[in-house]
Amino acid sequence: MIPGIVIIALVFYLFLSFDLYHFIIFLFCSLLLSSLFSFYAYRKRDRDIKQIKKVIENIRLNSFSAADKISLSNNLSELESEIKSMFLKIQNDIAQMKKLEEVRTEFLGNVSHELRTPIFAIQGFIETLLDGAIDDKEINRVFLEKANKHTINLNSLLNDLIDISMIESGQMLMSFRYFTAFEFLDEIIQEFIPRAEEKNLKLIFEPVNRHIKIYGDKQRLKQALNNLIMNAIKYTDSGSVSVGVKEEEKVCRIFVKDTGFGIPGNDIKRIFERFYRVDRDRSREMGGTGLGLAIVKHIVEAHGFNVEVKSELGNGSEFSFCLKK
Ligand SMILES: Nc1ncnc2c1ncn2[C@@H]1O[C@H](COP(=O)(O)OP(=O)(O)OP(=O)(O)O)[C@@H](O)[C@H]1O
Ligand SMILES: [Mg+2]
């Protein structure tokens, strides 16, 4: 600013016939005014900076209970609203992190609990065998078979956990392509016939247009359907399990329907949560850990659709989801 004032004074002096005396007075007054102005501007800027520093410090010390408690002077209103939105975002991020931490702790608690059950059981059978039961021909085989059943459960729990962590960390690689719905479902259903027969259940493959092609990751969809059909068989004591495809305008809806226990209304919205089981003991007895539907949900969502459930306690259930055709 000062060089500018000197140049203006020189212009006046050279071109507007200022004498040296007036030039010096003009220069002096201008410099004085500009120094006063600079001093005022500096003080104001200093006050503003202090105010901003205080607000930032209070945010750091968590002293603001809400965004509207943050205030700066009028000339800083734009900055004030920026700081307010930054404050809201930080608060939101912290709340999200706390929630994630809670979910993680709960998940770890569930995992340890679920791991402990089969490990304790296996340990118990082995100890009993070592304490002498191994020589008792009546029970040694039974104990070994029970221990073996628990190792199978343990293995399937670990596989489910690996799948869940791969899916949730975004590491699950998907490979989408078109394939024939009929062949795909037929192959899966054939594998379940022995299980359905064991429980005297009819496993029905509803008539399907043999030419319909659906789009998705065949291997992952097979994993999802395996769990849905397995659930339908597990949670049905008499009647049937039907699997089929309904053609809609742009999509195909694949459904698995059973005449089983059904699910109480309040539980329907929770069955997709990890480790959630309507009847914990019954499900655990059947080797379930409550991760199956969480995996199904992730797989179907990765295809851009949602799983729908229609169920009534005592009146069976129908799980379905759409796929692009
Ligand atoms: N077809 C069904 N009929 C009745 N209840 C069902 C059905 N499918 C799921 N459920 C209920 O939802 C719960 C969660 O199902 P999910 O498949 O996630 O777990 P799970 O079958 O217990 O164990 P797993 O991890 O081995 O699949 C089950 O424990 C069961 O209570
Ligand atoms: Mg299941």
What topology does this entry show?
Layout: H1 2-15, H2 20-60, H3 77-130, H4 140-168, E1 177-180, H5 181-198, E2 202-205, E3 213-216, H6 218-234, E4 240-247, E5 251-258, H7 265-268, H8 280-285, H9 292-302, E6 308-311, E7 317-324
Helix pairs in contact: 1-2, 3-4, 4-9, 5-6, 6-9
Structure description:
The strands form two sheets. The protein has a five-stranded mixed beta sheet with strand order 2-4-5-7-6. A two-stranded antiparallel sheet has the order 1-3. Helix 1 packs antiparallel against helix 2 (20-60) and helix 5 (181-198) packs parallel to helix 6 (218-234). The chain is elongated, with a radius of gyration of 36 Å. It starts with a helix and ends with a strand. It is built from nine helices and seven strands, in the order ααααβαββαββαααββ. By secondary structure, it is of the alpha+beta class. Adenosine-5'-triphosphate (ATP) is lined by residues 160, 227, 231-232, 235, 258, 260-261, 263, 271, 276-279, 283, 288-293, 317.
How much helix, percentage-wise, in residues? 55-70%
Query: Which small-molecule ligands are present, each listed once?
Result: adenosine-5'-triphosphate, magnesium ion
Strand order, sheet with most strands = 2-4-5-7-6
Structural class: alpha+beta
List key phrases describing it.
binds magnesium ion, five-stranded mixed sheet, two-stranded antiparallel sheet, 9 helices, 325 residues, alpha+beta, 7 strands, binds adenosine-5'-triphosphate
Q: Quick gist of this model?
A:
The chain has nine helices and seven strands; from the N terminus they run ααααβαββαββαααββ. It has 325 residues and is an alpha+beta fold. It has a five-stranded mixed sheet with strand order 2-4-5-7-6. Strands 1-3 form a two-stranded antiparallel sheet.
